[in-house]
From TrEMBL:
Residues 319-395 form the Secretion system C-terminal sorting domain. This is Peptidase S8 and S53 subtilisin kexin sedolisin. It comes from Nitritalea halalkaliphila LW7. InterPro entries: Peptidase_S8/S53_dom (IPR000209), Peptidase_S8/S53_dom_sf (IPR036852), Peptidase_S8/S53_subtilisin (IPR051048), Peptidase_S8_Ser-AS (IPR023828), Peptidase_S8_subtilisin-rel (IPR015500), Secre_tail (IPR026444). Belongs to the peptidase S8 family. GO terms for biological process: proteolysis.
Length: 397
């Protein structure tokens, strides 16, 4: 369910699994990553391109400490086709420990800043940060609601700076939702990033999922994903699938989606990428104070023009077979008496790729269209006849 809501199966079917993208994960530790069957592929050449433990002064060893980071990483990089398959298993990764679970002080925000500088030096495209800061062991360090303004917390300013450098920062919204409104944690209040809230499996806001607005009135989180009973890897259980709750586990799903989408649209600017993700949300027409733009989806984001222009039915038509395999003819059943039609087919970028005119034979109930030249993907057929114009999506395999 967690993958299907985001359109990950469609993304993979289109051939986008994060290849060529660099994703940084800032967390509390990554024990067992290279031994777990579903993550062992990351031990291959060029898969983990950098590691730093900033809690320990920047040493290279990160495959220790708290397993939270391993769980988060599994939601981006897991490659088990028969078990846990994440959105971006073919990406390259930078793993940084910035969180010290033994204590809570603002030094961890400095660790995050150092990690962002390091990630930037390695050409990272996406940062996943399943971390949030609000209260500390020293109460004098605690933040107030007025501090969640996108400009006060050091980690927030660091995240905004990373965004200005062209890095997509995806962060958890926080797990303080029981407080009600204005419960987000830093750096979720940063501008120019994507903060992610948590949904239950019934697609309602999880009670713990933090939401805004920010102190300066911006909607947070921007998007949501499943955050209750999320299937993930538990390293202490020999890599078997376990379940976890929290916005920590919502964010990496969206980070994986973003990596695949950016792979699919390599010339897209960061601002445009973010806008595509927001526009693909299922609440884009009724943005929610608690859920933002809703659940983003690859199909809606990637096929933007096509899926939003998409289907228009003045009369019901049926396309079959759909999907249509290579070598098959696409047949169109139309319940009208019209015989002459003009047709056009658009590809995933909204470009017209095929067009022509066709005549339905006397007594025939279908039109036949040769779609052999089309590569695999999702398309929209527009058919214009005396009864009007209709549009219908189909898949070419």
């Amino acid at each position: 369910m967690q993958n299907s809501l985001l359109g990950i199966p469609v993304m993979h079917a289109e051939g986008f699994r994060g290849e060529g993208m660099r994703v940084a994960v800032f967390d509390a530790g990554f024990p067992g990553v290279l031994e777990l069957p579903n993550l062992a592929h990351l031990g291959g050449p060029g898969r983990i391109v950098g590691t730093r433990d900033f809690v320990s002064g920047g040493q290279a060893e990160v495959f220790h400490r708290h397993p939270h980071g391993t769980q988060v990483l599994s939601l981006i990089a897991s490659a088990d086709e028969e078990g846990l398959l994440a959105g971006a298993p073919d990406a390259s990764y930078v793993l940084c420990i910035t969180e010290d679970v033994g204590s809570e002080y603002r030094i961890e925000e400095f660790n995050w800043l150092l990690a962002a500088e390091y990630a930037d030096s390695l050409g990272v495209d996406v940062i996943n940060s399943s971390l949030g800061y609000w209260d500390f062991d020293d109460p004098r360090m605690d933040y107030r609601i007025s501090d969640m303004d996108g400009q006060t917390a050091l980690i927030t300013r660091a995240a905004a700076l990373a965004a200005k450098k062209g890095i997509l920062v995806v962060t958890s919204a926080g797990n303080y939702g029981g407080r009600g409104a204005q419960s987000i944690t830093a750096p979720a209040d940063a501008a120019g990033i994507i903060s992610v809230g948590a949904l239950t499996r019934s697609q309602e806001r999880a009670i713990f999922s933090s939401f805004g607005p920010t102190a300066d009135g911006r909607t947070k989180p921007e998007v949501v994903a499943i955050g209750e009973r999320v299937a993930l890897t538990r390293p202490g259980l020999q890599g078997t699938i376990g379940f976890g709750n929290g916005t920590s586990f919502s964010a990496p799903q969206v980070a994986a989606l973003a990596a695949g989408l950016w792979q699919a649209l390599p010339e897209t600017s960061l601002d445009t990428l973010i806008q595509r993700l927001l526009d693909s949300g299922n609440l884009v027409d009724r943005v929610s104070a608690e859920l933002g733009f809703g659940v983003p989806n690859f199909e809606r984001a990637y096929f933007g023009v096509v899926t939003h222009v998409a289907e228009k039915e003045l009369v019901p038509i049926t396309l079959f077979p759909n999907p249509v395999a290579q070598g098959q003819v696409l047949q169109v059943r139309i319940p009208t008496d019209a015989r002459q039609f003009t047709w056009r087919i658009w590809n995933s970028l909204g470009q017209e790729v095929l067009a022509g005119e066709v005549e339905r034979g006397i007594g025939a109930s279908t039109l036949q269209l040769a779609v052999e030249p089309l590569r695999a993907g999702i398309y929209v057929l527009e058919l214009e006849g005396s009864a009007g114009t209709v549009r219908k999506k189909f898949i070419k395999q």
